[in-house]
Amino acid sequence: MSNEIAILGAGMHPWGKWGHNFVQYGVAAAREALADAGVPWQDVKFVSGGATVRCGYPGYVAGATFAQALGWQGAEVNTSYAACASGSQALAAARNKILAGECDVALVVGADTTPKGFLAPAGGYRPEDPDWVRFYLGVTNPTYFGLYARRRMDVYGDTLEDFAAVKVKNSAIGSKNPRARYRKSFTAEEVAASAMVADPLRLMDICATSDGGAALIVSSLEYAEKIGKGDAPRVAAISTTTPTFASSVVEMPDMATDSAAAAGVEAHAFRSTLPLKAYEEAGIGPEDVDLAEVYDLSTALELDWIEDLRLAPRGEAAALLRAGDTAIGGKIPVNVSGGLACFGEAVPAQALAQVCELTWQLRGEAGDRQVKDAKVGITANQGLFGHGSSVIIKR
Amino acid sequence: MSDKPMAPAIDGWHTMEVKPHLIGTRCKACGSYFFPKNNDYCRNPVCDSTDFDEVELSRTGNIWSYTNASYKPPAPFVAAEPFEPYTIAAVQLEKEQMVILGQAIQGIGCEDLKVGMPVELVLEPLHETDDDIKMTWKWKPAAQ
Ligand SMILES: [Zn+2]
Protein backbone atom coordinates (compact mmCIF):
# COMPACT_ATOMS: atom_id res chain seq x y z
CA MET A 1 0.00 0.00 0.00
CA SER A 2 1.25 3.43 -0.89
CA ASN A 3 1.77 5.76 2.04
CA GLU A 4 1.72 8.81 -0.20
CA ILE A 5 -0.73 11.69 0.00
CA ALA A 6 -1.35 14.44 -2.56
CA ILE A 7 -0.60 18.13 -2.08
CA LEU A 8 -3.58 19.82 -3.74
CA GLY A 9 -2.80 23.38 -2.73
CA ALA A 10 -0.19 25.58 -1.12
CA GLY A 11 -0.46 29.08 0.29
CA MET A 12 1.61 31.57 2.22
CA HIS A 13 1.17 34.95 3.80
CA PRO A 14 4.31 36.94 2.92
CA TRP A 15 6.99 36.92 5.63
CA GLY A 16 7.75 40.22 7.32
CA LYS A 17 7.50 42.09 10.58
CA TRP A 18 3.86 43.03 10.20
CA GLY A 19 2.90 43.03 13.87
CA HIS A 20 -0.60 41.59 13.33
CA ASN A 21 -2.18 38.67 15.16
CA PHE A 22 -0.77 35.36 13.89
CA VAL A 23 -4.27 34.06 13.12
CA GLN A 24 -4.56 36.61 10.31
CA TYR A 25 -1.48 35.15 8.56
CA GLY A 26 -2.72 31.59 8.99
CA VAL A 27 -6.15 32.43 7.58
CA ALA A 28 -4.64 34.21 4.57
CA ALA A 29 -2.32 31.25 3.89
CA ALA A 30 -5.17 28.74 4.34
CA ARG A 31 -7.48 30.65 1.98
CA GLU A 32 -4.74 30.85 -0.65
CA ALA A 33 -4.10 27.11 -0.31
CA LEU A 34 -7.85 26.34 -0.57
CA ALA A 35 -8.18 28.49 -3.69
CA ASP A 36 -5.05 26.90 -5.15
CA ALA A 37 -6.50 23.45 -4.48
CA GLY A 38 -9.95 24.35 -5.78
CA VAL A 39 -11.38 22.67 -2.67
CA PRO A 40 -14.26 24.23 -0.73
CA TRP A 41 -13.50 24.85 2.98
CA GLN A 42 -16.49 22.73 3.95
CA ASP A 43 -14.82 19.66 2.40
CA VAL A 44 -11.86 19.89 4.80
CA LYS A 45 -12.44 17.36 7.57
CA PHE A 46 -9.22 17.78 9.53
CA VAL A 47 -7.33 20.92 10.54
CA SER A 48 -3.78 20.27 11.67
CA GLY A 49 -2.08 23.31 13.19
CA GLY A 50 1.60 23.91 13.81
CA ALA A 51 1.68 25.65 17.18
CA THR A 52 3.86 28.25 18.74
CA VAL A 53 4.40 28.45 22.48
CA ARG A 54 4.04 31.82 24.12
CA CYS A 55 2.81 32.45 27.62
CA GLY A 56 -0.96 32.78 27.50
CA TYR A 57 -0.94 32.90 23.71
CA PRO A 58 -3.69 31.09 21.79
CA GLY A 59 -1.03 29.66 19.49
CA TYR A 60 -1.05 26.80 22.01
CA VAL A 61 -4.21 25.45 20.40
CA ALA A 62 -3.48 26.28 16.79
CA GLY A 63 -5.75 23.69 15.17
CA ALA A 64 -8.90 24.96 16.86
CA THR A 65 -7.82 28.60 16.54
CA PHE A 66 -7.57 28.34 12.74
CA ALA A 67 -10.70 26.19 12.43
CA GLN A 68 -12.65 28.84 14.32
CA ALA A 69 -11.16 31.70 12.29
CA LEU A 70 -12.03 30.03 8.99
CA GLY A 71 -15.56 29.33 10.30
CA TRP A 72 -16.55 26.26 12.33
CA GLN A 73 -17.76 23.54 9.98
CA GLY A 74 -17.32 20.46 12.15
CA ALA A 75 -13.80 19.42 11.12
CA GLU A 76 -11.65 17.56 13.65
CA VAL A 77 -8.54 19.38 14.82
CA ASN A 78 -4.99 18.66 15.92
CA THR A 79 -2.22 20.85 17.31
CA SER A 80 1.47 20.01 17.03
CA TYR A 81 4.30 21.70 18.85
CA ALA A 82 7.88 20.74 18.00
CA ALA A 83 9.60 24.14 17.80
CA CYS A 84 10.80 24.60 14.20
CA ALA A 85 9.65 21.09 13.25
CA SER A 86 6.04 21.85 14.29
CA GLY A 87 4.86 22.15 10.68
CA SER A 88 6.23 18.74 9.71
CA GLN A 89 4.61 17.08 12.71
CA ALA A 90 1.32 18.75 11.82
CA LEU A 91 1.74 17.44 8.26
CA ALA A 92 2.49 13.95 9.62
CA ALA A 93 -0.69 14.05 11.72
CA ALA A 94 -2.72 14.93 8.62
CA ARG A 95 -1.07 12.17 6.62
CA ASN A 96 -1.87 9.61 9.32
CA LYS A 97 -5.51 10.69 9.41
CA ILE A 98 -5.79 10.41 5.62
CA LEU A 99 -3.94 7.09 5.34
CA ALA A 100 -6.09 5.67 8.13
CA GLY A 101 -9.09 6.45 5.94
CA GLU A 102 -10.59 8.85 8.48
CA CYS A 103 -10.68 11.84 6.17
CA ASP A 104 -10.12 12.69 2.49
CA VAL A 105 -8.90 16.26 2.75
CA ALA A 106 -6.96 18.06 5.45
CA LEU A 107 -5.67 21.58 6.01
CA VAL A 108 -2.20 21.90 7.54
CA VAL A 109 -1.40 25.39 8.72
CA GLY A 110 1.18 27.23 10.81
CA ALA A 111 1.63 30.93 11.52
CA ASP A 112 3.57 33.11 13.91
CA THR A 113 3.89 36.64 15.14
CA THR A 114 7.37 37.04 16.57
CA PRO A 115 7.50 38.95 19.85
CA LYS A 116 9.67 42.04 19.99
CA GLY A 117 13.22 41.71 21.29
CA PHE A 118 15.11 38.66 22.53
CA LEU A 119 13.35 35.36 23.16
CA ALA A 120 14.45 35.25 26.80
CA PRO A 121 13.55 32.63 29.43
CA ALA A 122 11.54 33.40 32.58
CA GLY A 123 13.54 34.93 35.46
CA GLY A 124 14.35 33.76 38.99
CA TYR A 125 16.85 31.03 39.93
CA ARG A 126 15.83 27.97 37.94
CA PRO A 127 18.81 25.64 37.34
CA GLU A 128 16.48 22.79 36.38
CA ASP A 129 15.56 24.68 33.16
CA PRO A 130 18.31 24.21 30.53
CA ASP A 131 17.20 27.41 28.78
CA TRP A 132 17.62 29.44 31.97
CA VAL A 133 21.03 27.86 32.63
CA ARG A 134 22.50 28.57 29.25
CA PHE A 135 21.37 32.21 29.13
CA TYR A 136 22.67 32.74 32.69
CA LEU A 137 26.06 31.33 31.64
CA GLY A 138 26.11 33.41 28.44
CA VAL A 139 25.22 30.81 25.81
CA THR A 140 22.72 32.18 23.25
CA ASN A 141 21.29 30.68 20.04
CA PRO A 142 24.10 32.05 17.82
CA THR A 143 26.64 30.39 20.15
CA TYR A 144 25.66 26.97 18.81
CA PHE A 145 25.76 28.13 15.18
CA GLY A 146 29.18 29.72 15.80
CA LEU A 147 30.52 26.46 17.26
CA TYR A 148 29.37 24.43 14.26
CA ALA A 149 30.77 27.00 11.81
CA ARG A 150 34.16 27.30 13.50
CA ARG A 151 34.48 23.51 13.57
CA ARG A 152 33.90 23.41 9.79
CA MET A 153 36.72 25.91 9.34
CA ASP A 154 39.22 24.01 11.49
CA VAL A 155 38.27 20.50 10.37
CA TYR A 156 37.29 20.92 6.70
CA GLY A 157 39.05 24.15 5.76
CA ASP A 158 35.88 26.15 5.06
CA THR A 159 36.49 29.91 4.94
CA LEU A 160 34.63 33.09 5.85
CA GLU A 161 34.29 33.66 2.10
CA ASP A 162 32.45 30.33 1.78
CA PHE A 163 29.94 31.32 4.45
CA ALA A 164 29.45 34.73 2.82
CA ALA A 165 28.93 32.99 -0.54
CA VAL A 166 25.94 31.12 0.92
CA LYS A 167 24.33 34.45 1.87
CA VAL A 168 25.14 35.94 -1.53
CA LYS A 169 23.62 32.92 -3.30
CA ASN A 170 20.46 32.83 -1.18
CA SER A 171 19.89 36.58 -1.29
CA ALA A 172 20.32 36.65 -5.09
CA ILE A 173 17.56 34.08 -5.65
CA GLY A 174 15.43 35.17 -2.68
CA SER A 175 15.31 38.71 -4.05
CA LYS A 176 13.02 37.24 -6.73
CA ASN A 177 10.62 35.67 -4.23
CA PRO A 178 7.58 37.89 -3.60
CA ARG A 179 6.84 36.02 -0.35
CA ALA A 180 10.30 36.61 1.16
CA ARG A 181 10.85 39.29 3.80
CA TYR A 182 14.30 40.42 2.60
CA ARG A 183 14.31 40.93 -1.15
CA LYS A 184 17.71 42.50 -1.65
CA SER A 185 20.84 40.97 -3.15
CA PHE A 186 23.89 41.24 -0.91
CA THR A 187 27.56 41.13 -1.87
CA ALA A 188 30.33 39.26 -0.09
CA GLU A 189 31.74 42.66 0.92
CA GLU A 190 28.46 43.61 2.59
CA VAL A 191 28.41 40.34 4.54
CA ALA A 192 32.03 40.87 5.62
CA ALA A 193 31.23 44.42 6.74
CA SER A 194 28.31 43.37 8.96
CA ALA A 195 28.88 43.15 12.72
CA MET A 196 30.41 40.04 14.28
CA VAL A 197 27.84 38.16 16.40
CA ALA A 198 29.30 34.73 17.21
CA ASP A 199 32.74 34.30 15.68
CA PRO A 200 33.06 33.39 12.78
CA LEU A 201 29.45 34.37 12.06
CA ARG A 202 28.38 37.93 11.36
CA LEU A 203 24.95 39.50 11.51
CA MET A 204 24.31 38.65 7.85
CA ASP A 205 25.30 35.00 8.38
CA ILE A 206 22.51 34.48 10.92
CA CYS A 207 18.78 34.41 10.24
CA ALA A 208 16.27 36.76 11.85
CA THR A 209 12.82 35.93 13.22
CA SER A 210 9.77 36.95 11.22
CA ASP A 211 5.99 36.99 11.07
CA GLY A 212 4.47 34.68 8.48
CA GLY A 213 2.02 31.92 7.73
CA ALA A 214 2.02 28.85 5.49
CA ALA A 215 -0.63 26.28 4.64
CA LEU A 216 -1.15 23.11 2.61
CA ILE A 217 -4.27 21.31 1.46
CA VAL A 218 -3.48 17.59 1.38
CA SER A 219 -5.66 14.65 0.41
CA SER A 220 -5.80 10.97 -0.32
CA LEU A 221 -4.62 9.98 -3.81
CA GLU A 222 -8.18 8.79 -4.57
CA TYR A 223 -9.63 12.20 -3.76
CA ALA A 224 -6.95 13.92 -5.87
CA GLU A 225 -7.80 11.61 -8.75
CA LYS A 226 -11.52 12.30 -8.32
CA ILE A 227 -11.11 16.08 -8.64
CA GLY A 228 -8.77 15.75 -11.63
CA LYS A 229 -5.54 16.39 -9.73
CA GLY A 230 -4.06 12.91 -9.91
CA ASP A 231 -0.75 14.38 -11.07
CA ALA A 232 -0.37 16.72 -8.07
CA PRO A 233 2.94 16.60 -6.15
CA ARG A 234 2.91 13.98 -3.40
CA VAL A 235 4.34 13.74 0.08
CA ALA A 236 6.57 10.67 -0.34
CA ALA A 237 8.17 10.70 3.10
CA ILE A 238 8.11 12.49 6.44
CA SER A 239 10.91 11.79 8.90
CA THR A 240 10.68 13.23 12.39
CA THR A 241 13.10 10.76 13.97
CA THR A 242 14.86 11.60 17.20
CA PRO A 243 18.61 11.03 17.65
CA THR A 244 20.08 7.68 18.70
CA PHE A 245 21.92 7.69 22.04
CA ALA A 246 24.57 8.98 22.36
CA SER A 247 23.83 12.23 20.54
CA SER A 248 27.30 13.58 19.79
CA VAL A 249 26.70 17.22 18.90
CA VAL A 250 25.88 19.75 21.59
CA GLU A 251 22.42 21.07 20.72
CA MET A 252 20.34 24.01 21.83
CA PRO A 253 19.51 24.45 24.70
CA ASP A 254 21.88 21.95 26.35
CA MET A 255 25.29 22.65 27.92
CA ALA A 256 26.59 19.12 27.27
CA THR A 257 26.11 16.16 24.94
CA ASP A 258 25.21 12.63 25.94
CA SER A 259 28.09 10.44 27.08
CA ALA A 260 29.16 7.62 24.77
CA ALA A 261 31.22 5.99 27.54
CA ALA A 262 28.97 2.95 28.09
CA ALA A 263 29.81 -0.32 26.37
CA GLY A 264 28.13 -0.74 22.98
CA VAL A 265 27.19 2.93 22.70
CA GLU A 266 28.35 4.95 19.71
CA ALA A 267 28.20 8.70 19.31
CA HIS A 268 25.71 9.84 16.64
CA ALA A 269 24.77 13.21 15.20
CA PHE A 270 21.01 13.54 14.76
CA ARG A 271 21.18 15.71 11.65
CA SER A 272 22.86 13.00 9.62
CA THR A 273 20.52 10.22 10.79
CA LEU A 274 17.31 12.23 10.24
CA PRO A 275 17.23 11.95 6.41
CA LEU A 276 17.90 8.19 6.40
CA LYS A 277 14.31 7.38 7.29
CA ALA A 278 13.06 9.90 4.72
CA TYR A 279 15.06 8.31 1.90
CA GLU A 280 14.06 4.82 2.98
CA GLU A 281 10.38 5.71 3.22
CA ALA A 282 10.40 7.38 -0.20
CA GLY A 283 12.35 4.50 -1.72
CA ILE A 284 14.89 6.86 -3.26
CA GLY A 285 18.45 8.00 -2.62
CA PRO A 286 20.24 11.35 -2.50
CA GLU A 287 21.17 10.93 -6.18
CA ASP A 288 17.46 11.20 -7.09
CA VAL A 289 17.00 14.61 -5.45
CA ASP A 290 16.62 17.65 -7.75
CA LEU A 291 16.51 20.39 -5.12
CA ALA A 292 16.61 20.88 -1.35
CA GLU A 293 15.20 23.39 1.13
CA VAL A 294 17.34 23.26 4.26
CA TYR A 295 17.31 25.16 7.54
CA ASP A 296 19.98 27.84 7.09
CA LEU A 297 19.72 29.23 10.61
CA SER A 298 23.27 30.27 9.73
CA THR A 299 25.09 30.29 6.40
CA ALA A 300 27.50 27.60 7.63
CA LEU A 301 24.63 25.38 8.75
CA GLU A 302 23.41 25.17 5.14
CA LEU A 303 26.72 23.45 4.35
CA ASP A 304 26.27 21.02 7.26
CA TRP A 305 22.78 20.11 6.03
CA ILE A 306 23.98 19.51 2.47
CA GLU A 307 26.34 16.87 3.85
CA ASP A 308 23.78 15.49 6.29
CA LEU A 309 21.35 14.99 3.39
CA ARG A 310 24.22 13.20 1.61
CA LEU A 311 24.09 15.61 -1.31
CA ALA A 312 27.87 15.97 -0.86
CA PRO A 313 30.44 13.79 0.96
CA ARG A 314 31.29 14.93 4.52
CA GLY A 315 33.44 18.05 4.40
CA GLU A 316 32.82 18.76 0.71
CA ALA A 317 29.75 21.00 0.71
CA ALA A 318 31.89 24.10 0.36
CA ALA A 319 33.47 22.66 -2.80
CA LEU A 320 29.96 22.11 -4.21
CA LEU A 321 29.10 25.72 -3.32
CA ARG A 322 32.29 27.11 -4.88
CA ALA A 323 31.52 25.22 -8.12
CA GLY A 324 28.10 26.91 -8.23
CA ASP A 325 26.36 23.55 -7.94
CA THR A 326 24.05 24.61 -5.09
CA ALA A 327 22.84 27.68 -6.98
CA ILE A 328 19.98 27.68 -9.46
CA GLY A 329 21.22 26.04 -12.66
CA GLY A 330 23.70 23.92 -10.66
CA LYS A 331 23.64 20.17 -10.03
CA ILE A 332 21.65 20.37 -6.79
CA PRO A 333 20.13 23.80 -6.09
CA VAL A 334 19.69 24.47 -2.37
CA ASN A 335 17.29 27.03 -0.90
CA VAL A 336 15.99 28.48 -4.16
CA SER A 337 13.22 30.06 -2.05
CA GLY A 338 15.97 32.24 -0.61
CA GLY A 339 15.96 30.18 2.57
CA LEU A 340 15.87 31.54 6.08
CA ALA A 341 18.43 34.09 4.93
CA CYS A 342 15.64 35.87 3.02
CA PHE A 343 12.63 34.82 5.08
CA GLY A 344 13.73 34.90 8.69
CA GLU A 345 12.23 32.22 10.86
CA ALA A 346 8.49 32.08 11.58
CA VAL A 347 8.79 29.01 13.78
CA PRO A 348 5.53 27.02 13.38
CA ALA A 349 5.18 28.00 9.71
CA GLN A 350 8.71 27.46 8.48
CA ALA A 351 8.68 23.70 7.84
CA LEU A 352 5.43 24.16 5.87
CA ALA A 353 6.91 27.06 3.91
CA GLN A 354 9.66 24.70 2.77
CA VAL A 355 7.02 22.25 1.48
CA CYS A 356 5.11 25.10 -0.23
CA GLU A 357 8.25 26.04 -2.16
CA LEU A 358 8.87 22.44 -3.25
CA THR A 359 5.21 22.14 -4.31
CA TRP A 360 5.44 25.17 -6.61
CA GLN A 361 8.82 24.01 -7.93
CA LEU A 362 7.52 20.53 -8.77
CA ARG A 363 4.51 22.07 -10.52
CA GLY A 364 6.86 24.26 -12.58
CA GLU A 365 5.26 27.43 -11.19
CA ALA A 366 8.24 29.02 -9.44
CA GLY A 367 8.85 31.64 -12.14
CA ASP A 368 12.28 33.26 -11.94
CA ARG A 369 13.28 30.74 -9.28
CA GLN A 370 12.26 27.64 -11.23
CA VAL A 371 14.59 24.64 -11.09
CA LYS A 372 14.34 22.99 -14.50
CA ASP A 373 12.51 19.64 -14.59
CA ALA A 374 12.30 19.37 -10.80
CA LYS A 375 10.73 16.03 -9.87
CA VAL A 376 12.00 15.32 -6.35
CA GLY A 377 12.65 17.73 -3.51
CA ILE A 378 13.72 17.26 0.10
CA THR A 379 13.48 19.51 3.16
CA ALA A 380 15.40 19.52 6.42
CA ASN A 381 14.88 21.50 9.57
CA GLN A 382 15.59 21.26 13.25
CA GLY A 383 13.67 21.83 16.44
CA LEU A 384 15.04 21.87 19.96
CA PHE A 385 17.02 19.22 21.91
CA GLY A 386 18.42 17.79 18.69
CA HIS A 387 15.36 16.70 16.81
CA GLY A 388 13.94 17.92 13.53
CA SER A 389 12.22 16.82 10.37
CA SER A 390 12.87 15.94 6.77
CA VAL A 391 10.11 15.75 4.14
CA ILE A 392 10.40 14.39 0.60
CA ILE A 393 8.03 15.64 -2.11
CA LYS A 394 7.91 14.04 -5.55
CA ARG A 395 5.88 14.25 -8.68
CA MET B 1 36.38 42.70 41.92
CA SER B 2 35.77 43.29 45.62
CA ASP B 3 36.72 41.22 48.69
CA LYS B 4 33.27 39.65 48.92
CA PRO B 5 33.13 35.88 49.49
CA MET B 6 33.02 33.57 46.49
CA ALA B 7 29.97 31.40 45.83
CA PRO B 8 29.08 29.08 42.95
CA ALA B 9 26.81 30.69 40.34
CA ILE B 10 24.86 27.43 40.20
CA ASP B 11 24.90 25.32 43.36
CA GLY B 12 26.42 21.87 43.13
CA TRP B 13 27.55 21.92 39.50
CA HIS B 14 31.29 22.13 40.27
CA THR B 15 33.73 21.95 43.17
CA MET B 16 35.24 25.20 44.48
CA GLU B 17 38.90 24.10 44.63
CA VAL B 18 41.77 25.87 42.87
CA LYS B 19 41.81 22.95 40.45
CA PRO B 20 38.05 22.47 40.21
CA HIS B 21 35.98 19.64 38.75
CA LEU B 22 32.52 19.67 37.23
CA ILE B 23 30.21 17.39 39.19
CA GLY B 24 28.17 14.89 37.22
CA THR B 25 26.69 11.49 37.80
CA ARG B 26 27.59 8.06 36.44
CA CYS B 27 25.08 5.28 35.93
CA LYS B 28 25.92 2.36 38.23
CA ALA B 29 24.66 -0.14 35.68
CA CYS B 30 25.99 0.98 32.28
CA GLY B 31 28.62 3.61 33.10
CA SER B 32 27.09 6.51 31.13
CA TYR B 33 28.02 9.93 32.48
CA PHE B 34 25.60 12.83 32.85
CA PHE B 35 26.19 16.56 33.17
CA PRO B 36 24.40 18.30 34.70
CA LYS B 37 23.69 15.60 37.30
CA ASN B 38 20.99 13.10 36.47
CA ASN B 39 19.82 11.03 39.43
CA ASP B 40 16.43 9.96 38.17
CA TYR B 41 16.61 7.55 35.22
CA CYS B 42 19.37 6.47 32.85
CA ARG B 43 19.01 7.88 29.34
CA ASN B 44 20.87 5.01 27.65
CA PRO B 45 18.01 3.26 25.78
CA VAL B 46 19.27 -0.23 26.70
CA CYS B 47 19.57 0.62 30.42
CA ASP B 48 16.71 1.07 32.87
CA SER B 49 18.85 1.86 35.91
CA THR B 50 17.83 4.46 38.46
CA ASP B 51 21.06 4.22 40.50
CA PHE B 52 23.83 6.74 40.05
CA ASP B 53 27.12 7.71 41.65
CA GLU B 54 28.01 11.38 41.96
CA VAL B 55 31.38 11.80 40.24
CA GLU B 56 33.91 14.52 39.54
CA LEU B 57 34.37 14.79 35.76
CA SER B 58 37.78 15.04 34.09
CA ARG B 59 39.09 18.57 34.44
CA THR B 60 41.07 18.42 31.19
CA GLY B 61 39.93 17.84 27.63
CA ASN B 62 40.36 18.93 24.04
CA ILE B 63 38.54 21.68 22.19
CA TRP B 64 35.70 20.38 19.98
CA SER B 65 34.92 23.90 18.78
CA TYR B 66 34.80 27.52 19.93
CA THR B 67 33.08 30.84 19.26
CA ASN B 68 32.44 34.13 21.02
CA ALA B 69 29.63 36.37 22.21
CA SER B 70 30.05 39.80 20.65
CA TYR B 71 26.70 41.06 21.94
CA LYS B 72 25.30 41.16 25.46
CA PRO B 73 22.96 38.19 26.05
CA PRO B 74 19.52 38.85 27.61
CA ALA B 75 18.76 38.16 31.30
CA PRO B 76 19.30 36.04 33.32
CA PHE B 77 22.83 36.81 32.05
CA VAL B 78 24.31 39.59 34.20
CA ALA B 79 26.59 41.74 32.08
CA ALA B 80 29.40 43.98 33.23
CA GLU B 81 29.12 47.63 32.17
CA PRO B 82 30.43 48.19 29.61
CA PHE B 83 29.83 44.74 28.13
CA GLU B 84 33.02 42.82 27.37
CA PRO B 85 32.78 40.16 24.62
CA TYR B 86 33.84 36.72 25.81
CA THR B 87 34.89 33.46 24.21
CA ILE B 88 33.06 30.13 24.52
CA ALA B 89 34.51 26.65 24.06
CA ALA B 90 32.94 23.21 23.61
CA VAL B 91 35.32 20.66 25.09
CA GLN B 92 35.52 16.91 24.48
CA LEU B 93 36.25 14.85 27.60
CA GLU B 94 38.07 11.65 26.71
CA LYS B 95 37.07 9.35 29.56
CA GLU B 96 33.46 10.54 29.69
CA GLN B 97 33.08 10.62 25.87
CA MET B 98 31.04 13.80 25.99
CA VAL B 99 31.29 17.48 25.05
CA ILE B 100 30.72 20.25 27.61
CA LEU B 101 30.23 23.96 26.91
CA GLY B 102 31.62 26.78 28.96
CA GLN B 103 33.12 30.23 28.64
CA ALA B 104 36.87 30.47 28.03
CA ILE B 105 38.85 32.47 30.59
CA GLN B 106 39.05 36.25 30.29
CA GLY B 107 41.69 37.48 27.88
CA ILE B 108 41.42 34.49 25.54
CA GLY B 109 40.03 35.15 22.06
CA CYS B 110 39.02 32.83 19.23
CA GLU B 111 42.37 33.56 17.59
CA ASP B 112 44.06 31.84 20.57
CA LEU B 113 42.12 28.58 20.14
CA LYS B 114 42.08 25.65 17.70
CA VAL B 115 40.02 22.46 17.40
CA GLY B 116 41.87 19.72 19.31
CA MET B 117 43.76 22.10 21.63
CA PRO B 118 44.15 20.79 25.21
CA VAL B 119 42.36 22.84 27.88
CA GLU B 120 41.77 22.64 31.61
CA LEU B 121 38.94 23.68 33.90
CA VAL B 122 39.29 26.72 36.15
CA LEU B 123 36.91 28.99 38.08
CA GLU B 124 36.36 32.67 37.30
CA PRO B 125 33.76 35.23 38.36
CA LEU B 126 30.54 35.25 36.34
CA HIS B 127 29.08 38.32 38.06
CA GLU B 128 28.85 40.01 41.45
CA THR B 129 25.82 40.39 43.74
CA ASP B 130 25.36 42.53 46.87
CA ASP B 131 26.53 39.58 48.98
CA ASP B 132 29.08 37.59 47.00
CA ILE B 133 30.98 36.92 43.81
CA LYS B 134 29.29 34.27 41.68
CA MET B 135 31.90 31.87 40.30
CA THR B 136 31.53 29.57 37.33
CA TRP B 137 33.64 27.08 35.38
CA LYS B 138 35.68 28.26 32.42
CA TRP B 139 38.08 26.61 30.00
CA LYS B 140 41.72 27.67 29.96
CA PRO B 141 44.33 26.59 27.39
CA ALA B 142 46.50 23.99 29.16
CA ALA B 143 50.04 24.99 30.12
CA GLN B 144 52.46 23.57 27.58
ZN1 LIG C 1 22.68 3.28 32.55
UniProtKB/TrEMBL annotation, chain B:
ChsH2 C-terminal OB-fold domain segment(s): 54-123
Residues of the ChsH2 rubredoxin-like zinc ribbon domain: 20-53
InterPro entries: ChsH2_C (IPR002878), ChsH2_Znr (IPR022002), NA-bd_OB-fold (IPR012340), Thioester_dehydratase-like (IPR052513)
Source species, domain of life: Bacteria
PANTHER family (UniProt xref): BLR3430 PROTEIN
Protein name (Swiss-Prot/TrEMBL): Zn-ribbon domain-containing OB-fold protein
Species this chain originates from: Candidatus Seongchinamella marina
